[in-house]
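DM from R.C. (forwarded with permission)

"hey, sorry to bug you on a friday — could you get me a structure for this? deadline for the figure draft is monday and I only need the backbone to look sensible"
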Amino acid sequence: MRSFVPMSVLPARLRKPAVAVLFGGALAIAWLVRGGPLAWAAILPLLAGIARAVVIYQAGGTDTDEGALAASRADERQQLVGLRSRALAGTIVTAGSFVGLCAGIAARANWWWPFAAVLALAGFGYLLGLSSYGSGEPEPEDDAVRSGRPA
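My reply, with the result:
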């Protein structure tokens, strides 16, 4: 999996804890921007992100499969399990958004559009994955090798 340039400067064991703190901080900022009487709740996702980072960092120090995943030092088997888990999660979210879209349209409600947006994002992500990782079409040099011509 490709990482962004700023993440590549961090040691592998700190990458996932940094993402946990980043996401907790982003949610806290969203609560602060929202304002109102619940602005104090911004501290909760920030604390949760920090606590999650500590747990991930401690798990990354263990010599187990979970520790390897937490410390971003997973082998191919563990990476395949993670990939299949993300694929299953995407399939479940897509199916759930389709059911929600159908229910919203059937109820003649005006809340159907977020489900359509999730389906559109899932479709775009799928097409982006095909274009990024290949769609199974042979490369021109593969055709030359199969026909016996030098590339």
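R.C.: lifesaver. The chain has two domains: 1-74, 76-134.
me: no worries. Residues 126 and 132 are 10 Å apart (CA to CA).
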